[in-house]
Structures are given as structure tokens and as C-alpha cells.
Amino acid sequence: MLISPAELALALASSTPPRLLDVRWALTKPNGADEHAEGHLPGAAYVDLDTELADIGEPTRGRHPLPSRDALEASARAWGLNDGDAVVVYDAGHGFGAARAWWLLRHAGVDVRILDGGYAAWVLAGLPVETGAVAPEPGSIGLGWDGMPVIEADDAAAWPARGLLLDARAGERFRGEIEPMDPVAGHIPGAVNAPTSENVGAGGTFLAAAELEARFAQLGVDGRSEVAVYCGSGVTAAHQIAALEIAGFTAALYPGSWSAWAHQGRPVETGE
């Protein structure tokens, strides 16, 4: 599910190179089109997370509800994807935006990997970049759906009684000390805090499988209990699911996450 810059460079030089998607995104600057134009991997199409990897709807659905299959298929065709294409997604470095694309494309049945360390790792390796906008030849891919487990709010409410519900937000948001985005601070009752930022090392690459396995074991992930993950709006939770998969575990995503939960007036816990 991960690919290193060196491995990607070899794949791009092969007779069947993967398609590249640039998903640069941050909570404070969601549109990364200008960074893409300033420099990107050769041939990479820019993907707008807010408009192409999410739907727009009522606040009770959260800030980044999942797009429909048809909407994602239209976007994937605009990125130039065809049936059978292998895809590599990347972002600026830590993988949060890329993981959302990885999760959605896996959900839709696409062969997709994350460039570990993203654009920063590619540049650090001294590999070529290009500038300007990329206008791919439209593709004709047909997407599937339901390839990844998904839960809704009622499932999340009941989940701690049957398994482990991980909250991937920063500790201060989980504890309810601050809430910069949503109307209520705190967390879903019974959830366990597991900040997504702790999935990566200083260079922005994922921790090794053994390190991630040990991290999640300390949080109660044992391979026997079912695991579900949420975050603020379902974006960084996808990164948590990727990290869990690297460690050998599967997990369900609550796409609405805290942004949906808080707007629905559901019960809230604060503190550890």
C-alpha cells in the first residue's frame, strides 16, 4: 500500500507506469492547486480534496461526507484514469490528504498506493519535478463501491460496547480543551484518543510496521476486537486506517466523524 520515491521512479520508467494524483491539502489551506503548479511529480494530476473527494451537504453530514460513486467516477475520469490503471497518490509530505484519496479509491476498487513521504520525500531524493498545470486526457474508468468498511453515527455510538473506537484528532481536541472547527468540544463517549500525527516519523514517512503495531497495541488494538476510526471530518481518519493496515489490522471509517456528530446534538464526553 506504500511506495517509496525510488520504487516509484522505477515504476514510472517501466512499460506500465502508474497514474499520479497530487492531493495536497491542509485544514488551514485546503486547496493546493498553486503548490501543484509550482512543482509536482511529472504528469501528476491535481486533485481537490474538498470538491472531488468529498460531497457538499448539510452540516449534520459533516464537513467532508463521502462523494457518491458517480461523482467520484466523473472525477477519476477527469484525472485521466482508465480501467486497470495502477495509481499512486501523494501530498506535501505527511500523507493526510493522500490517505483520503487512497481510502476512497480502495473503496471504489482501484489499485492504489501512497507515496511514502509525499512530494517532500520525492524532492529530497533528487528526483525530477515539473511545473505548471496538468490537463490529462480524459479516462473511461468504471468504479465499484463498498470496498472498505463504513459505519454511521448510530454504529459509532454503540461501537465502544463491542470494540475499539479510535479518535484520530489531536489530544487537546479529544479532551475538549479547544475546538477550532465544530460547535461542540469533546469526543464520542467511550472513544480512545490516537492522534494521527503519531503515525509518522520526523520526515513525514509512516513508522515501520512493527512500530505501528506496538503503538496500536498500547491503545488496545489486539486483532480480536473490531476497530473503527473517526477524526474531525473523515480525512485524517483515513490516514489512521492506512497506518492500521500497515500494522496488520483492518478498521472501519466513520466518515461524518466529529463534525457530523457535533452538529447532530449527540452525547459528548470531555477529558481523557
TrEMBL record:
Q: Which InterPro entries match?
A: Rhodanese-like_dom, Rhodanese-like_dom_sf, TST/MPST-like
Task: Name one matching Pfam family.
Answer: Rhodanese
SUPFAM superfamilies in UniProt:
Rhodanese/Cell cycle control phosphatase
MF terms from GO for this chain are: transferase activity
Q: Is the keyword Zinc in the record?
A: no
Answer whether the UniProt record assigns the keyword Repeat to this protein.
yes
Question: Which keywords does UniProt give here?
Answer: Repeat, Transferase
Q: Write down the EC number.
A: 2.8.1.-
Q: Please list the residue ranges annotated as the Rhodanese domain.
A: 14-131, 164-270
CDD domains (UniProt xref): TST_Repeat_1 (cd01448), TST_Repeat_2 (cd01449)
Taxonomic superkingdom: Bacteria
**Protein name stated in the entry:** Sulfurtransferase
